Amino acid sequence: MLTIALPKGSLLKDSIDRLKSLGLDFSAFLDSSNRQLQIVDASGSAKGLLVRAQDVPVYVEYGQAQLGIVGYDVLREKQPKVAHLADLGFGGCRLSVAVKASSPYRQPIELPPHGRVASKFVRCAREYFRELDLPVEIVPLYGSVELGPITGMSEAIVDLVSTGRTLKENGLIEIAVLFESTARLVAHPLSYRLDADGLHEVVDGLRGTVKTPVLQ
What we know:
six-stranded mixed sheet
């Protein structure tokens, strides 16, 4: 039976809609009264796992799921050993550097050397500032990252931005974009090569739901 890891949060509904268009129905995950973390599709051909977005590539890498849907931001941060199959084209957002609107900084390179940057994307932030040749201290935060500059703990943050509303409401502004992120389809490499449990049929179906599905 094909097992697909689905991400909790903002990507879940679109992920389920795409799979439903292929005849795989995991919509019970959208029911707020549902407490199941594992659902078998009515056809009996596939099983869905509901996991934290950051854990999707882990389940795929270790073979507990043959396929997974996850944001590109998670793939860039975790760098898992999975096969990148398609850009599914939904869940668009960006990983950005932001500062207090009242601060004097309007470019990342203007941040003070050895200043602090708060982020849950520690690897991405560290690589970005290394490329700028600007030494900074990356402060790991995993909730309410916006409080870093507000409280004075950090000069800046590196965080996901969708509409920008949260930044604006907290008096922050974007000053640079590291990269754009969308939902991606990933697979366990060996399962993909072996076409385990009809995996290729589902992959081809999902690729068919977007205009430019295959990553280059």
